[in-house]
Amino acid sequence: MNRTKREINYGMFILPALLFYVLFCVYPFVTMFYYSVTDYSVSKQTNLDYVGLRNYIEIWDNDLLLYGIKNSIVYALLMTVFQTAFGILLAVALDKKLKTRNILRSVFFLPAVFSPLVIGFLWNYLMSTSDFGLINQGLTSIGLSKINFLGDSDLALYSVVFTQLWQWTGWAMVIFLANLQSISKDYYEAAEIDGATASHQFWKITLPLLQPSVSVVAITAMIGGLKVFDIIMSLTNGGPGNATETIMTAFIKTSFSEGFYGYGAAFGVVFFVAVLLLTMLLMQFLRKWGEKIA
Amino acid sequence: MKRFKALWITLLILAFGVAGCGTSKNNATNSATADTSASVSQSASPSESQSASPAEKVKIRMAYWNKESTVQNLLDLIKQKLPNIELEYQFIENSQYDNIVGTQLAAGSGPDIISIGPPAASQYSKLGYLADLSTLADRFNEAGTSVYSVDGKLVALPGISWFEGIYYNKEIFAKYGLKAPTTFEEELQLHEDLKKNGIKPQAMGAKSFEPMMKSSMGLIMNEFLSLPENKDFDVKYGKGEITLEGNWNAGLEKWSELIKRGYLTKDMLGIDYDQALDEFATGKAAMWESGPWALDTIKQKNPNIQLDMFPFYGSKPGPGWLIGGPGVGFSANANSKHLDAVMQVMDLIATTDGQKAFWENNQGGSSYLKGADFEMPAEFDGVKETFKAGNVYAPWNNWGGNVSGVIQDYGKSLQELLGGKSDVSSVLKATDKQTARIIKLNP
């Protein structure tokens, strides 16, 4: 009896947070499913009618959303692979006994403390093709031609990815460093006695034992990549054309600029399912990798 | 045990707090439309409030997406001329304006005076949210009333117009013996002459979808939309009865000469509005398309710049056209509890005094009120004839509601055209597709 009473009393501690969570997170999320099958829009906010799967069917007829889905998947995959890879390389390099390692760790981590909007406006000027664009000014001063980083539709998405790798690789590095420091030095000593090279040590000891942090970084990068919004708005606003539209920019434009809330809700449901599936696939892959090395 | 008692007390307070939030929300909703006796009773003595008389102030609310300073003189005038009315000004941030006001109106409340754009005016009017202002329609020019009329009724008073033309640097023009064009062909030649002299003819922040969208429509207004047989084209287009493909092709092909001849270049897709403004203000480019709102910034960057503006031209000489329209309309909430007071304010706005007060905080535009002629800054001397002819128009204002996606798609398709990834026909077909989708989704 005392135990139950105690559990209830402790449970009460989380009630305020739970209340707000349900009110501002669970409730809007659940209503999204309801609105996705109605004709809810800026022109019709009361007496909503059930429209079946009409909103879901319309998604596949909207070029903006289709470009958004394609670009988001490319962006998320590139971010997941390169942020993880560069983060590991940087962490391994800065785990060595270098005199400058603390300074270098701070330097590489520093971009992560800024808002993506600040980073966006900064790179917008750096990559500009106008005479004020620092990078292109440098290129032309050494006799090279300008590169239209953000205005060339074949290049723009990759330019955005580059800025985000520059910003977030340092953050991934910190996660990997924490993991690296938990790996016992005994493994390396034993490997050295057995004659293993540095490369062998990395592939056979370091990388497998980094599996827990790789899971964290990869899944965070994948989810963050799929819902990228702020950096796109500040760097390209989805352009040129639809070259850098992502799921979230397309979602905001469709739902709020055009005012078709029911349609936007349907897209939200599709987005939720897509993120769920991709994350599950990635987790499955990482789990299998973990089991293999266990 | 004391700790748990404290926890229970905290929870009780929280529960009352949440309940309190609900109550205060209701109060807030009610206060938006509540009888003003409540507000009077707060300031007046009980005996005064009991003897409700016409001398009591009626409190009404006005919502706008611009800061109060942009209507300060108008608010002062209302205070002075209508002492029986207390106007509460509510600023709502632009990006959320339509969502907030739309939701309030759907709930049967909302501001008494609604600042509104043409697409929203069309939507709200069809939903019965806006009062009929047709009794004031005769005081305004048709160019202003046409965009705020729905089914023959005036639903908002047109405010001061916004407009965009092409700024040019008079010093650069004088240096090379050039003058402002009078046709599109002369404009092309002007670009060529500047280019030959090593001057970038035109700065353009094509990273945004807007400048090419407006520039091309400027030519199409001259070549196609101003023809008598196309008078109803935009209204028909908004209803899905007609398409751009097959109608705008010739005009857009002609405009695309700016791209084909290398005056608008791919590198402009990497330049935004601010950077283009910098290029023009610092004399690195001779021309730049924009409006009066940019003038202060240009002069801050280069106080010595000498500039003027010319409108968009077509093949034939004439006054040309400016892209623009009523920047904001003032509408009355049909469900307002104080419609009489609201109509008094509307009546005041529809006078020369009212228009002048609003214009004083929004200089550069012109009034649609008949007989209201305010002195334009000298930097717009080159477009005086265009204003006199009443040639200020934005086609999408007559395309009905939800047009932001359509004009964005059109502008983005033009970015693809500039980037060499599309052609004129594809641009128009993509825009038509978006329009058809929006018409289909509208209830």
From TrEMBL, chain A:
It holds the Pfam family BPD_transp_1. Keywords: Cell membrane, Membrane, Transmembrane, Transmembrane helix, Transport. Gene3D superfamilies: MetI-like. The keyword Transit peptide does not apply. PROSITE patterns: ABC_TM1. The chain crosses the membrane at residues 12-35, 73-94, 106-126, 155-178, 209-229, 260-283. InterPro entries: ABC_transporter_permease, MetI-like, MetI-like_sf. Its main location: membrane. It is found in: Cell membrane. It is a multi-pass membrane protein. Residues 69-282 form the ABC transmembrane type-1 domain. The keyword NAD does not apply. Belongs to the binding-protein-dependent transport system permease family. This is Sugar ABC transporter permease.
From TrEMBL, chain B:
InterPro entries: Bact_solute-bd_prot1, SBP. PROSITE patterns: PROKAR_LIPOPROTEIN. Residues 1-21 form the signal peptide. SUPFAM superfamilies: Periplasmic binding protein-like II. Keywords: Signal. The keyword RNA-binding does not apply. This is Extracellular solute-binding protein.
